[in-house]
Amino acid sequence: MTWPNRAYDGAMTAATRPHLLSLEEWDALGEDSSSHAELQEGVLIVSPKPRPEHQRAGGRLFSALDAAAPEQFDVYPEVDVVLDARTPATVRAPDVVVVRTGVASRRISGTDVVLVVEVLSPGTRRTDLVMKRHEYAEAGIPHYWIVDLDGADVRLEILTLVDGAYESVEATGAFEAMAPFAVRVDLDALR
Q1: Mean pLDDT of the chain, nearest integer
Q2: Which of 41, 53, 64, 150 is most buried (CB neighbours < 10 A)?
Q3: Helix/strand number for the chain, H first, E second
Q4: Does an H or E element contain 27, and which?
Q5: For residues 143, 168, 93 and 19, what is the CA-based torsion angle, rounded to 10 degrees?
Q6: How far apart are CA 160 and CA 150, in angstroms?
Q7: Contact between residue 96 and residue 75 where contact means Cβ atoms under 8 Å apart
Q8: Ranges 17-31, 47-61, 131-145: which has the least confidence
């Protein structure tokens, strides 16, 4: 069998012989600002960059959280969070991440995260609502917020980790959180 323009010599590429990636292989891929990439149990998941309205909502939430955060917390937009470093590794890139000050280094461990925020997108809706809910709870992340821009009102699902599982409350309009710190967010202004 021959491939176009060259003879097949028996060597296979990573594309024709896929395997589950380790954290070291994930790091070796480098940064790519043209797409959104995550690692789910060793499988590279690549999707287009979020829509402008998604990025605006994430940016406004980041700004609100960053402005309200006391000095013992740092707030980051779209950073890699290592949920499981063992091979096959899992690395997620939430829209907003809150950690205790001083814990962030080259990469952020899920055990250091106190809040993750995901803004739902059509292509990642199921992952954010089902898979990440399980992964974030398993990593022990105490607070998970899910923003849904679809519909007449912007909805926020506030998940709080209790005995290893998330308890859920929904909010619309103006929302005031007390954990992980006091912050007021006008959800309608996220659009």
Answers
A1: 89
A2: 64
A3: 4, 15
A4: helix 23-28
A5: 120
A6: 23
A7: yes
A8: 17-31
Our CA angle for 23, 57, 64, nearest 5°, is: 90
Task: Enter the pTM of the model.
Answer: 0.87
Q: What is the pLDDT of residue 55?
A: 94
Q: What is the pLDDT of residues 77-101, one digit of tens each?
A: 999 999 999 999 999 999 999 999 9
Give the CB-side neighbour count of residue 79, counting CA atoms within 13 A. 22
Distance (Å) of CA 142 to CA 115, 164, 173: 7, 9, 23
Torsion of CA 179, 183, 189, 191, to 10 degrees: -40
Give how far Cα 42 sits from Cα of 22, 94, 119, Å: 6, 18, 23
Residue 85 CA, chain-centre distance (Å), reads 16
- Topology of domain 50-190 in CATH is tt1808, chain A (3.90.1570)
